[in-house]
């Protein structure tokens, strides 16, 4: 059994590839071109002291068609935990085993790579370039294309379909979770609807096939489904001032006059809501809206597809949550003095 260093691909590239000068060899072992030491950080060494062009070793690590792309190309020493690209489903696997393991391994592989600097410096995606209107679409297509589900004869085709749809749903959710703050509202809403469509394709199979009703697997699916689809740091408005009140307005097509209520927030708890780390702002229309430690507003879909879009107004200190049921929840945050904290 192979033993892998307890480090991810992202962390290995960031911390274990060290800039160096040319080796005693006349050329890079991967591309066989001569060294160009004049370019800053053009040449790097692996943890096993083998030297390559930085672009060459990154291309090697990021290749999806290699079984050994987590090794040093020179000595084949393992550098990081293997990256999941193709998951092979065999006749001996059960539906539950395959989908659960696929999901866990995929999360472990790509969970840490949705960061602005890593995407730009390693993968070549500048998600901060507002002039590139297709940047998030291109990023999703990249992650979609480097992963696959390999079915073999005799295995249940539904299992591969579920893994495929869950995988794409999770990729979109991770992009929204990590990069949503860079998106225009219409882009964010479009990706949210796409994510819901992928999940719903898998949902019927997950909830209705008896083999998938094991408690552990069902709990894992529920945990995934209820990850925050939107987070906003209200401290970006207030600095060190604490939230003291949240005005909650419910607006619907049927009602011209909105329903308005106010939550007083004191010492990490909501008035009449008991002590809690999170303040419940709303639990209606298939959505859970929370204020975590008076610092982070979180929106969770209790039913996938219930959230249509979220719009943040920095001038008015409001967050508008629009549901797919033609309801609008408007939250206005009121901040107190610094000494009101606690």
From TrEMBL:
RING-type domain: residues covered: 28-76
GO biological process, one term: protein ubiquitination
Record-given protein name: RING-type domain-containing protein
InterPro entries linked: Znf_RING, Znf_RING/FYVE/PHD
SUPFAM superfamilies: RING/U-box (SSF57850)
Record bears the keyword tRNA processing: no
Record GO terms (molecular function): ubiquitin protein ligase activity; zinc ion binding
Organism: Trematosphaeria pertusa
Recorded superkingdom: Eukaryota
Key words, A-Z: Metal-binding, Zinc, Zinc-finger
């Amino acid at each position: 059994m192979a033993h892998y260093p307890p480090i991810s691909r992202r962390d290995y590239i960031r911390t274990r590839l060290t800039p160096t000068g040319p080796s005693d060899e006349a050329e890079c072992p991967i591309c066989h071109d001569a060294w160009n030491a004049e370019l800053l950080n053009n040449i790097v060494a692996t943890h096993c002291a083998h030297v390559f062009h930085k672009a060459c070793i990154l291309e090697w690590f990021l290749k999806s068609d290699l079984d050994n792309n987590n090794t040093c190309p020179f000595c084949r020493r393992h550098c990081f935990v293997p990256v999941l690209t193709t998951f092979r489903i065999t006749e001996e696997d059960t539906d539950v085993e395959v989908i659960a393991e696929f999901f866990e391994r995929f999360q472990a592989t790509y969970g840490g790579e949705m960061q602005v600097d890593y995407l730009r410096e390693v993968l070549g995606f500048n998600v901060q370039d507002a002039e590139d209107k297709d940047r998030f679409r291109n990023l999703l297509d990249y992650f979609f294309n480097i992963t696959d589900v390999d079915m073999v004869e005799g295995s249940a085709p539904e299992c591969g379909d579920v893994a495929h749809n869950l995988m794409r749903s999770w990729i979109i959710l991770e992009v929204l979770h990590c990069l949503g703050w860079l998106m225009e509202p219409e882009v964010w809403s479009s990706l949210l609807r796409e994510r819901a469509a992928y999940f719903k394709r898998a949902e019927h199979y997950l909830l209705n096939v008896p083999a998938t009703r094991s408690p552990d697997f069902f709990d894992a699916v529920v945990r995934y489904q209820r990850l925050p689809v939107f987070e906003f740091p209200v401290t970006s408005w207030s600095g060190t001032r604490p939230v003291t009140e949240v005005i909650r307005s419910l607006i619907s097509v049927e009602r011209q006059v909105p329903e308005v209520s106010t939550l007083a927030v004191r010492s990490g708890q909501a008035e009449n809501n008991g002590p809690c780390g999170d303040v419940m702002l709303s639990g209606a229309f298939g959505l859970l809206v929370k204020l975590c430690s008076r610092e982070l507003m979180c929106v969770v879909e209790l039913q996938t597809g219930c959230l249509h879009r979220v719009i943040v107004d920095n001038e008015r200190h409001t967050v508008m949550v629009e549901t797919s049921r033609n309801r609008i929840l408007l939250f206005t945050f009121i901040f107190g003095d610094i000494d009101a904290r606690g």
